[in-house]
Every structure is written in C-alpha cells, then in structure tokens.
Write a structure and sequence with these properties.
The complex is a heterodimer of chains A (457) and B (176).
Chain A lengths: L4 H12 L2 E3 L6 H12 L4 E5 L8 E7 L2 E7 L5 E5 L14 E3 L2 E3 L6 E3 L4 E3 L3 H5 L1 H4 L12 E5 L2 E5 L7 H5 L2 H8 L7 E11 L3 H10 L4 H4 L1 H5 L15 E5 L2 E7 L7 H7 L4 H10 L2 H10 L1 E8 L3 E9 L6 E14 L2 E11 L4 H14 L7 H14 L9 E3 L23 E4 L4 H15 L13
Helix pairs in contact in A: 1-15, 2-15, 7-15, 10-11
Chain B lengths: L15 H18 L3 H6 L1 E10 L15 E5 L1 H12 L10 E14 L5 E14 L3 E17 L2 E11 L14
Parallel strand pairs in B: 1-6
Antiparallel strand pairs in B: 1-2, 3-4, 4-5, 5-6
Classes of the chains: A alpha+beta (457), B alpha+beta (176).
The complex binds FE2/S2 (inorganic) cluster (FES) and fe (ii) ion (FE2).
Chain lengths: 457, 176
Amino acid sequence: MENDMNEMDQILEDVRQGWIPSHIYSDAAIFDEEQKRIFSRTWQFMGHVSEVPNDGDYVVRNLLEDSFIVVRGNDTKVRVLLNLCRHRGGKVCRNESGNAQKFVCPYHAWAFKTDGSLAGVPYHQEAYGGTEGLNKKEFGLYRPPHMEIFNGLIFINLDPDAEPLESYLGDFASYLSFYVPDVPGGVEVRGPQRWRFNANWKIGSENFSGDTYHTPQTHASMGAIKLVSSAATSNRKAGVMFAAGRGNGATFRLGDGPGSFEERLGNNGFPKEQIERMRAAWPPEIVALLQQDGLLPSASTLFPNMSLLHISAKIDENDEFAPFTTIRLWMPISATETEMWSWFVVDKAASEEFKRKSYKAYIMCFGTSGMFEQDDIDAWVTLTKMTQGYVSSAVHLHSRMGMNQDGSPLNEPLEEYSGQGTAHIGFNEYNQRRWLNFWAEHLEMDPPAHPIRSGAE
Amino acid sequence: MMTDNTLENMLDFDHPAHLRAHKFLVEESYVLDRRDFDTWLAMMADDITYRIPVTSTLGTNPHKAGEMDHMFEDRYSLGKRIERLKSKYAWTESPPSRTRHLVSNVACFSTDNDAETRVMSALMVYRTQGADQGPDLICGMREDILRNQAGQMRLAARTVTLDQSVLQTQNLAIFL
Ligand code: FES
Ligand SMILES: [Fe+2]
C-alpha cells in the first residue's frame, strides 16, 4: 500500500461492505497504522491480579514493542510501570516474573521502588549535584495514563483522553463476567503459554468474534475422536452470535427454550458446588441466557485483540466432561507474525479436583498443544501466507455472510434474547463485520495524544 | 532413598541399565520420526505422566502461582492425540511434520525402585512441513523414568524442560 489516504479510504470502504482487500492481513504499512491508531487508544489486557498475589510480586508484559512491569507494591496496590530506565533507557527488569523490593537497572544502577519511584541514583550528590541537579521525584518509571481493574483483570490504556473502561466495555461487561466471574475470593489464572506463529493478529480476533461456521470443518477431528459434544462441533448453527459493547461472541446451544440451570451446567461437567457458585456470581442475564434460552457463551473477542473462550471436553475414558475457560491475547509482532499469550482461568475456591480436571481439558483443547487450537492457527498461518502474493494480495476476500446483494441484512436480530446486546441465530458474519467496522473506525481517527509528551507519570 | 543426579551417581556407560535406556531412546526416536504412533504409545506405561512445563525467566523468589504446561498428559490424552492424528481431519499435520528427534548426552541414574532408571538426555527436534513450513528447532532436556516391566522397557514419566520460554513453532502437534 502507498501511504495514500485515498487508497486507505477505499480499503475502509471495501471492508465496511464486507469485501476485504486481502493484503490487510500481511501489509506492513497497514500494520504501522494499526499500531498508531488502534493499540495506542484501546484498552489492553496486561494480566490478572492473581498473578501478583503478594507485595513485590511482578510479571512483565509486552504491548507491541513496549515492555511493562505489572507489580504489587508494598502498599498492596497493583501498578503498571513502563519497564524503561529513566536514565538512558535500560531494561529495568529482565525476568518474566518474580518478587522484588526494587528494580535496579543493570546499566548504571538507578534503583526504582515497586511503586515506580526512583529511590537510588549512584553518586547522586557528586555526579548530579544532588536534588538540585536531579530531582529523583521527577524520574520515576513512567506509567500508562490509565489503568483499571475489572474482576481482577488489569487493563491499561495509552490514550490520555481514553474513555473509562466501563464505558468501553459497555454491555460486553456482562459476558466478561461470565468468563471471569466475580466469585467471592476471585478467580486464579495459570500461564501464560507464549508462542509465535506466522499469522496476522486480526484473524484470530475476528474468528473468536463469531466464526462458528469454521467449526464443523476446521474442528472435525474433535467430533471424530469424540472429545466434545455435538453442541461444540456439528451443531454450532443452532447457537447465536451476540454483539455487545466493544465485544462480540458466540454461544453453544445446550437446550431448546427454558430448562434447568443445574442440569444444563451439570451435563457440561460443572460439579454441584460450582453450579451454585456460578449461579450466584454470574450476572442475572447470563443465568437467564442459559436457563431461558439454553445458550452458553463459547468464544468472544473484546476489540481489538483480547479473546475469551469457554468449552467442555472429555477428560478421561469414562466420558467425564470438564469445562474450562481461557483468556488470550493476539499480540502482533509484525504484519505477518503473532505472539499468542494464553491463560487458563478457574474459580480460586474450586476444589483441587475440579481445577485439575478443568486444566486437563484446557491443555487438551487449547494452548500450544491444544487439539482445537492447532488447526485454527494452521488455517490462519496459511491464509496470511496466501495474502502476500502479487496476484493474491489484490483479491477481495468475502465477508458478507448474512448480507444481501444490496447490503441489507439477510435476517434481523432476535426479538427474544435474554443476554445483553443484540443477537443473531445461525451462521453469519455480522460480528466479524462489526469487528472490522471498529477497526475501520479506528484507522480513520487521528492518532491520540502521546502518553508521555502529555505528561503522564 | 532417591539418588541425586550428581556426576558421582551417574551410571557407567556400559551399565546394563544405561544400555537399555539408550537403546530405548533410539528406538523411540526411530518410531516417532517414522510417525509410527501406535508403536510409540505401546512404549508408554499405563500410568505414564508426560509433561512439558512452560519455561519462564524467573527472578528471585519466584512465586509458584500460575505454573503452566504446554502438555500435561496421561495415557488417555496421548491416545486421543494419536487418534486425532490418524483421523482425516488433523489439518495442521497435513502435510505431516517431518521430524528428526536427535537425542544425546544420555545420563542415567538409579532410583529407589530397582525396576526404574532416571534418564536425563538432551533433545533437539528439527521440524519441517510441506515445501515452505519451517525449519523449526525445538530444544530441551528430557528427564525420564524408564521402567523395566518384565524385560520390556516402558516410559513411566517424562518431563521435557524446553530452552525457549516463547515457543517458536506454531504448535505442538508432535511429541517431544
Ligand atoms: S540506563 Fe539505567 S541506570 Fe543508566
Ligand atoms: Fe476454531
């Protein structure tokens, strides 16, 4: 792509019509724009508070090329600090996780406390003339302009003028509280698994927004080896796709119309005490969704690149089912490479037995070795590769399922739907188009004010 | 009492347990690289525990919260993975990975169980697929418990400690 606004306008116009110029999945110039206009202003997931349970515990997280330390200070407060020494730019913390009382830069030994403040400068008096020459108070580690926590999920936003997380999430908060329930004591996470593959980051984000159409084919092996129920593979058409706030997602059909909450969850491997805890913790509309409509959320994406998934799988010879939940980030490395960060999530107060079974189901299905995930990523790597050819890069890909020739919707949203937001039944690409519309909307906006130049500390 | 994995305790290379273990590892690479997964599964003990923990760069006082695995397998799940690979629908292995399991630096130690030997080895797997996938290199250290079951060697436990914390292969649809 030339750096030509008319050409960009045309791309965005095509995308909005459901015609995707294939090169958006491999074009370095498009990726440049995405970095400046999307990742700079959207709420970005950094980790979960259970990853830093004690004072001084930290994990290091990347947002594109920026490295951040997520750390619990001695005042028990969780903070997110830019992992960049204020002296000459050394990487202050080189580990992925640990516990520290301070972070000492390996280059010249400036030392930062866990709240980010600069505590020590070697030869402060002799070399700098003390506070007169260098006021340590002004040289703490940078912090992103905004950090908010939702049900223990830590988000940051680099845009000084960002809207609050709550309004960004909108109705998607209800679904987020399904995957990461507000249970007494909270959830705990394991992970992340991290690995890289040669696919554009958008493809996974779109897929998790509501591509149930791929399931019967891509995941045919899961039915063939009887690892999951038909609701999760061959019967995906009976589920609905929901659009809520900045998120989109899909559901499994677990029953037709009203039915028993206990029975539906029980069939999916929830033990009795988990059923009761979920009933109390899930938002009422999620309880109603399962009880009244027979639907349970499966995959979702919060724009731009955070996805969540819930599914059950058989974990032993006795056909015992166990459900699991995963949170993942599609973190771009380049236009053609993604690093996946994938966590396992479970109710902290669940029995050890349930945790073990749920974890087992996760490892079998998703993550590096997951038997679902393997085939997804293979498809996306192939697609990314295909869009790089001279001929192939000029092709418009088809994203018009559920759209008539004239652009009008093939069917209307459901009139009766117990969940938040709007929903469509059956196979369609309303959600993927909605995600792509968010994408187009962001690429049209001017980049936000810079977080550092605007004085954030 | 478990013996330590110290140099003094390493079995001599002509020790029968070392010879058996080394032969087992060569046989295992042979069947894995030929994608003879049924034979491979038959080499596993019924109570096999097969783990590939996530390697992470830990600072001091690392907290145990959040430990994660790439694989956490028993006989059932290994069997399911093989059943899947044999189905027509394991797209990611179509065309199948060509692998070369190179096993070296085999070091054996006796355990408190006469029938079991602890075997440490260095593993390097070279993986390509089709005409344009890879090559990927997956390196790590295997720590195995090999069990002599009435003259038949079986893998009772394996932990593969990977060298990379961010895995640079698109998935683990292969066995390490
Ligand atoms: S760069 Fe960190 S102390 Fe100099
Ligand atoms: Fe999928």
